[in-house]
Design goal:
The protein is of the alpha/beta class. It has a single domain, classed as Vaccinia Virus protein VP39 (Rossmann fold), CATH 3.40.50.150. The protein has nine helices and seven strands; from the N terminus they run H-H-H-E-H-E-H-E-E-H-E-H-E-H-H-E. Helix 3 runs parallel beside helix 4.
């Protein structure tokens, strides 16, 4: 299943005006369960932090997490990096329009990126499942962080991440180079890259898996069949959105013994 063409189509629609872009971010915040988990972790991390903070959004994509971080504190310096030039240009244009001088975006390959001892917080959301040389990236991020800095990762787990159900089943997302991380494996890789402490937990437990199918999988499958389904999406979400919100709430506020996603934290 091709995910990037759908993202580009949505981007074209919501890029017509800054108000629409902000509305798009708000919709992503509500629909994407991983956003609920990541924003919760950022809020916990940010408690007691001052103004002199530098943040790296490693694999910034549409820029929705950069936008959230830039609003937490107007004095925080936030850099978003992405390998896609058109995505970086698009984000720089948007953030200039909304007058966010504390934010900038650059084209960068995370397998080569290194800005020694710079960042207090590094964010990596839906990135590592796309990169084969993951340990090299972890090493670069570790080198780029200040002592005591935290790396926050969201990625599929090997418990059905990428909607894979067995060894012979392909990933739901064609762009993924791995179907998901083992919860111990990713922590071992992070420690081998120089991180001194790690913590990992499952998300997308039973409620989250149902929510993901309703809010993401089924709409994407429909849009891959025909872009005409954009017309019926508002009516589809009118029916399913309240259910997804309730399921997301329970997923974020429940401890899961297993799940198709992982939230991983690592400290330098």
């Amino acid at each position: 299943m091709q995910y990037d063409p759908i993202k580009r189509s949505l981007g074209n629609i919501f890029n017509k005006h800054p108000f629409l872009r902000k509305m798009f971010y708000r919709l992503l915040d509500l629909l994407l369960l991983r956003t609920w988990h990541i924003k919760k972790e950022i809020r916990l991390w940010a408690m007691g932090k001052g103004d002199e903070i530098k943040v790296l959004d490693a694999g910034s994509g549409f820029g929705q997490y950069t936008y959230f971080l830039s609003r937490k504190n107007k004095n925080w310096q936030v850099l978003g990096v992405d390998v896609k030039e058109e995505q970086v240009e698009d984000c720089n244009n948007f953030f200039r329009k909304i007058n966010k001088p504390n934010v900038k975006f650059e084209v960068a390959d995370l397998t080569q990126f290194n800005q020694a001892n710079t960042y207090d917080l590094v964010l990596s959301v839906d990135v590592m499942e796309h990169i084969l040389e993951d340990v090299e990236v972890f090493k670069n991020l570790n080198l780029s962080m200040k002592k005591g800095g935290m790396l926050l990762i969201s990625t599929p787990s090997d418990q059905g991440g990428s909607d894979v159900h067995d060894h012979d089943h392909d990933s739901f997302i064609d762009e993924h180079v791995r179907d998901g991380y083992n919860i111990d494996e990713i922590q071992e890789k992070l420690k081998s890259a120089g991180f001194t402490e790690t913590e990992a937990r499952y998300n997308y437990g039973s409620p989250g898996k149902i929510s993901w199918k309703l809010s993401m999988k089924y709409p994407i499958l429909m849009l891959n069949v025909s872009k005409l389904f954009f017309i019926i999406l508002p009516f589809y979400y009118l029916l399913t959105f309240p259910i997804s919100l309730i399921l997301n709430y329970f997923d974020v506020n429940t401890t899961h013994k297993t799940g198709t996603g992982l939230v991983v934290k690592a400290w330098k």
